[in-house]
Fold this sequence. Notes:
This is Kinesin motor domain-containing protein. This protein is α+β, with helices and mostly antiparallel strands.
Amino acid sequence: MESxxxxxxxxxxxKPNKSxxxxxxxCIISQEPPVLLLVDRSQTFSFDNIFSEDVSQETVYNKTVKxxxxxxxxxxxxxxxxxxxxxxxxxxxxxxEPNVTxxxxxxxxxxxxxxxxxxxxDDESEVEIHLSFIEIYKEKAFDLLQNESNRLKIKGVKVEGxxxxxxxxxxxxxxxxxxxxxxxxxxxxxxxxQSSRSHAIFTIYxxxxxxxxxxxxxxxxxxxxxxxxxxxxxxxxxxxxxxxNINRGLLSIGQVMTALSNNSTFIPYRQSIxxxxxxxxxxxxxxxxxxxxxxxxxxxxxxxxxxxxFAQRVKRIRSRPEVxxxxxxxxxxxxxxxxxxxxxxxKRPLFMNTPRPPKQQKLSTINEPSYSSIITDQSQSPKSxxxxxxxxxxxxxxxxxxxxxxPQALSPIIRKYMNAMESSLMDKIGNVIQSTLKTExxxxxxxxxxxxxxxxxxxxxxxEVSKIVKSEVAQLTGNGVRATSSPLGEHLDDVRKVLxxxxxxxxxxxxxxxxxxxxxxxxxxxKKSTPFALSPIENIIPRRSMRLSMKRRSKCSINNNQxxxxxxxxxIESSLTFREDIxxxxxxxxxxxxxxxxCSKWKPAxxPRRSMRxxxxxxxxxxxxxxxxxxxxxxxxxxxxxxxxENNTTEG
Length: 652
Ligand SMILES: Nc1ncnc2c1ncn2[C@@H]1O[C@H](COP(=O)(O)OP(=O)(O)OP(=O)(O)O)[C@@H](O)[C@H]1O
């Protein structure tokens, strides 16, 4: 990490003075360094940034949150707060109001999401994003991503049952942001017709893999409810009670900040729900960015001074962020396993597919199925096999097939052929594993993931797998392919070479457990005039568009040119090692997408998630198909609207 990085960044944002009142309590007297003068007290304040009334949302974003995204991807937890008097622009700044209509006014959250999904050619890291959106209202926590019974339980300083949505595209992320925004508590007060009566915490969980380093970090974007004077806001009854709770939460945040800036040994996190929830983010191991929103009006001087003083306290915190690196912990916990993985001739498991902790544990604490236990199963008493071990065989085979396709000299046509082979092979292996696991129902396996399945032995599965592989190979290299009768004929020698390449380990590989899922989520459909006519909030981001999200080093997207109907092009933006893979993947995608009949048969896999099986059904797709194309060389996740490709095939 750069030594000059500011770990705590404090910015002041001055709300535009719409009342045209001449008398202002604030004046910026210098921007280099940024100094603010509180006029009637002749008192000056200095911060990292001071945004005058005319500063755009984009500038605020570039100077506050944008640098943090980089660190979050590197594994540093970060938190951005919007704090200030009610009606001074916190919700506007964060973008937690439901009806944003133009690009200029888009708030920080959406800009941040856009950056997470933005493709960067130089960045080879693989990123997995989950989102949660919590509201704290009257000292109770609610999950804004659940429409019903969304009250969350708090145990100590932990919130339980928070919905964490995995998102593959900006489009999906926007859907959840809008959903959460709609569910927030708002009410009109004298000072703000749409006053947020709650604190809202939008969290982006980011798991990143870059080379051997795996990190897991989160970025909290917090829109605090406004500090308010009951007299000014004119609240009473239940609204008054809201105000009391809001102020209580804010007071406790202030106390935590004071304790941190004073280097106290005791930090009073438990005083309110908001500080309890943010405990793991409000500490010195994180990046903190505060955007304190203030009103320039003389009548608001008291609140403005309070906000500036709060900002000063935060500025005094000397933090030293720490990276949440997984690999070091992983090595420590599993030295033997790590050694094995380094020595294995196969590729490491795909990070994107590694099992995630069920309850958002840090990656470092994942209880991954231990490789050593697999070895023990195999060498000492091959009497039983867990379902996850069974699926690991599938994955190992996949890894092996990956390594088969490693020679760069492979022509695209052979690659395609390899893909087809792998596809059928994986199907068969999937069936073998399923049938060997049949002693337990799928539900039971799902419920008891770690249970052993009696009667299924490593040797049994290995044997079955090797039989399939051998017969496939024989078919491919034998009579099945003729030089004259097949387009592959002229490449037959190459095919043979490739198939002989390193195929022997298939039958004796050690397990590498990864997770495969294939799902067709049924997102609520909004009626639209054209397949891509998105609502304003979605249009304002210059979309690379419906991103087919990235796995490993590849990324696909459907670029939709809004100006010409039906001009839907598929492209793959990729930093794949082998350029020809891109074409192949593109073709594979087009094949899958154009073949809508085929697509319509896919439905969510109902088998244990780790057992890699795509189930077919006659039910048509609702509106969206999402899944993975796992055909050998690379694995690409994609998600696209069925309507889009239907349109494409009919018009194009
Ligand atoms: N910098 C700005 N530029 C343009 N409009 C702004 C700006 N800041 C605030 N506003 C407008 O002022 C009004 C009040 O802002 P907002 O609702 O964001 O305040 P708030 O601090 O979140 O209030 P509360 O704490 O009551 O929820 C909104 O209509 C918003 O669009």
